[in-house]
Amino acid sequence: MPCFRCGARQTDPSRGASPWRRGVRADRQVLVCPGCQSGRDWAADLDGCAACGSTALVSRLGEIECRDCGHTREAVPAGPADSAGLVRSGAPPGDGGLSEEVAAALTRVLRRRP
What we know:
Layout lengths: L20 E5 L2 E5 L1 H4 L19 E4 L2 E4 L5 E3 L23 H13 L4
Antiparallel strand pairs: 1-2, 3-4, 4-5
């Protein structure tokens, strides 16, 4: 999953915890890369908890849970694209050619002819 702000793709950390942060925006789980975290107040772009205001939210199985206070709520279903411009299913707009890269990798690994 790419960074929701700049589209950078996550790579495996050499050791230890990942420097990437998770959050929820428009009821959808998103990642924030270390570069975007060092910029302006990136947490302002994320949804906040209705109970405590924290942005430490996770989205799982149709519900949103606050990691700070434990408050949960049902995720609001939306159409193909919501007001924030996020696609609710499938690849995000402008996936940077990821679909083509995956298809090319599968072709190489499975030794298919194009």
